[in-house]
From TrEMBL:
UniProt KW keywords: ATP-binding, Kinase, Nucleotide biosynthesis, Nucleotide-binding, Transferase
Naturally occurring in which organism (per UniProt): Kushneria avicenniae
Reported function: Phosphorylation of dTMP to form dTDP in both de novo and salvage pathways of dTTP synthesis.
The protein's name: Thymidylate kinase
GO biological process: dTDP biosynthetic process; dTTP biosynthetic process; dUDP biosynthetic process
Catalytic activity: dTMP + ATP = dTDP + ADP
Domain of life: Bacteria
Broad enzyme group: transferase
Ranges that cross the membrane: none
Amino acid sequence: MTQPGRFITLEGGEGAGKSTNLSFVRDYLQAHGIRVVTTREPGGTPTAERIRALLLAGDDSDPLDDLAELLLVFAGRAQHLARVIRPALARGEWVVSDRFTDATFAYQGSARGIASERIALLEQFVQQGLTPELTLWLDMPIAHAADRLAARGGERDRFERERSDFFERVRQGYRARAEQAPERIVAVDAAQPLEQVQRDIAVLLDQQIASWT
């Protein structure tokens, strides 16, 4: 009988190191003989990646309405679930995603001001009860994250161009989600040196591997 797949997500604001640590989580799990699928949101499939491009590009002549932004996020998520996440879990693989619905509550909910009840309705409709089993929230002070973004350079997307108060609301949104689901969402101090961040993540993964296998 195929062992059940597991669903892990990495969350956090801009500059928190999600992409770097996603690779670390993948490699760590694979080293333990676990089959892993890594993905991201918005995105994860060709169609969802086109939705991601709409969300990140922005158009000053036709600014994206907040409700339209929310619906695009869930449209991409529906495709992502149907084409990537659910099939991988059914095969017994572990799915590790750079962001999922906690990001929607933080960005479109806390930061944009859309009522959490509306987001929860879409969450239930699209996900039908599927949620991550472990979420690593890479948390750091907003000023620290801003320094990382500045050091990274390059052109910033529509979200990265937001003001610091927007990112503070995002962080507050994540904190609220962690308080609501402490059994699932674990805060990791992402302001530490990368080596220490990954040691902390490894400890959490070891605990989950022991309990799930």
